[in-house]
Amino acid sequence: MSAVLWSTTARIADALNAANGTADHEIAMRVLKVVEEAGETSAAYIGMTGQNPRKGTTHSRADVADELCDVIIAASVALHSFAPHPPAVLHSKLHTAARRLNANTQPDTTAHHPATIESE
C-alpha cells in the first residue's frame, strides 16, 4: 500500500504543479488543505458523538475514518512540495516517533542504580 500511496500522491502533486504552478501561494494552499481536511475530520467526530444537540448524531465511525484518510492523502501530497523523497522523510519520522515511544515505555533502570547516573 505504501508504494501505491506515494506513487499516487506523486501523480496528484505533479498534476497540481502543472495546473497551478509551484509558487509559495500554491504550496501554502496545499498545507492549508491538510488543515481543512483535519477540520472535516473534527466535524465528523463531533457528528459521530452527537455533541451538537441541534444536529444530533450525523456521522459514523466510517465517516471519521474516511476523513482521516483525506488528511493522510492531503498531507502526503503537500509533503511532495517540501521533500525531494517524501517516503524517506515519513519513514524517518515514523521511526523517530516509534523510538521515542519505546524509550518512554521502558522501565527506568537508572533510578535503582545511582552510580549509573553519576557516570553519565
Overview of this protein structure:
By secondary structure, this protein is mainly alpha-helical. It has five helices and no strands. The relative contact order is 0.11. The termini are far apart. Helix 1 packs across helix 3 and helix 2 (24-49) runs antiparallel to helix 3 (61-79).
Brief account:
Helix content is 75%, strand content 0%. With 120 residues, the chain is mainly alpha-helical. It starts with a helix and ends with a helix.
Topology:
Blueprint: H1 2-20, H2 24-49, H3 61-79, H4 86-105, H5 114-119
Helix pairs in contact: 1-3, 2-3
Strand proportion: under 5%
Instruction: Specify Rg, calculated over alpha carbons.
Output: 21 Å
Distinct helical segment count? 5
| Average pLDDT for all residues | 90
Low-confidence stretches: 113-120
Q: Helicity, in percent?
A: over 70%
Q: How is the main sheet built?
A: none
Secondary structure tally: strands: 0
The H-and-E topology, N to C, reads as HHHHH
Tell me the domain tally.
2
Apparent shape = flat
Gap between N and C termini:
43 Å
| Alpha-beta classification | mainly alpha
